[in-house]
Amino acid sequence: MVIVKGQLTAGKGEGRLLGYPTANLKLEPSSLRPEEGVYACWVTRSGSPGPVAGILISGVYQEPGQTPRVEVYILDFSGDLYGVSLEVKVVAKLREVVRGVALTQLKQRIEQDIADTRKILGLPAI
Question: Model-level pTM?
Fold first, then answer.
């Protein structure tokens, strides 16, 4: 099982514009970077009592000369996480990263990722 650790940093807010805000992680030096893809995961925030369900996206956002980002969407969460440290336990790969699709298709794919994550992690469908 891959465990990713890092502190949240500001992103471009693209996930928030879609209705699915993601937490951009600045990885700790000891953390492994998952291969490019979308993964079901458990997320533990510093100071929280236990893990919550999430989706980790690795390698989506790239600019020339920059390291691909690792982002996490936390299911059923709203709030500010800037400056918080996260530990992410990757459970299963959902799919490859999809590029160049229309926003409506991307939103449908994210909804399917959420449903798949709930099923894989043994959570009830909403």
Answer: 0.89
